Amino acid sequence: MNSDLRFHIVLQNPTSNVDFGLQxxxxxxxxxxxxxxxxxxxIHFNFALRIKGDRQKDPFPKLTGSFVQGxxxxxxxxxxxxxxxxxxxxxxxxxxxxxxxxxxxxxVDLISTDSKFILETTVPGTGRDGGPNCATVKSFEGWKLKxx
Length: 148
Description:
Layout: E1 3-12, E2 19-26, E3 29-37, E4 43-52, E5 62-64, E6 76-82, E7 93-99, H1 105-113, E8 117-124, E9 135-136, E10 144-147
Parallel strand pairs: 1-8, 7-9
Antiparallel strand pairs: 1-4, 2-3, 2-6, 4-5, 6-7, 8-10
């Protein structure tokens, strides 16, 4: 199966006056896209990933695309923050890792038959230190189906 799934990330109340963006590509060959400067209000990111795999052989769909990071068993999305998002005057140099977990064949089937659905997650934008949230999202609630 080869098809695309649409995703939406809501970054809740991120630290003000900091740039946030999605990392496209990996290693030294990446770019940050959809860069937004936070004013303390929620920030939204939209992207699509390709679903591959064979449901007869693969217990879960394989997620691929230019936004996917990590090993086969632990795929994730990076949100670049501060200098990593190209904000040269920022005191912050961080990345937020959002896991791509909990996506099964049933979800793929539902989205494939009804294009009004997307997968959405909401994650905190500010960490305990008052700066931008970084590292792997703690207490990740997963991806939920949302009608558009």
